[in-house]
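Hi R.,

Here's the chain you asked about this morning:
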Amino acid sequence: MADAGECVISQKHPWRRCTLDGRINEIGAIFEAKHTNSFVKSDEVLERYMPQLQHNMAVAGLDRAVLSVIFGNSKYEMFEIAADWLYQLDLFKAEQAFWNAVQSGDPPVPHPTPPAPRPIATRELNLEGNNAWAAAAADWLEHNAAARIHASACRSIKELIDEYVLEGSFQL
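And here is the predicted structure, written out as tokens:
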């Protein structure tokens, strides 16, 4: 997986942007990771995140998305979703109307949500009772904030260094 945290700007409509959880370059897909409670059904998760997935695919110009979902601490599912240009067109119209309202200062008018397209493939794993998974999940939860701070610091340092500099020294 690559490009975690990348901010993508639409080539056609610069006001359309997204921040990717990642890309899976081998299959030309965006990657999105979610953690929800254990009582939510797969269909509800797909319906809830379909607008974000379709928006991100449209902005990134990719035809597939992989949605990785952890349900509570006991179940994991991965969904592959195809870009649906009709759904994306309905979504674009709603986004354009909202953006026009932002620019004009008029109150936005709600648009009906289009029905969510179905995923291409679903893979379900039951990790209940798997201590290795539980330990890794606990580590991830404990260190996720520090990892984000580290990544932000790396970006900040790189921005301070001219791209043509080969060597340098600094003191903390």
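One quick note: The first strand starts at residue 7 and ends at 9.

Cheers,
M.
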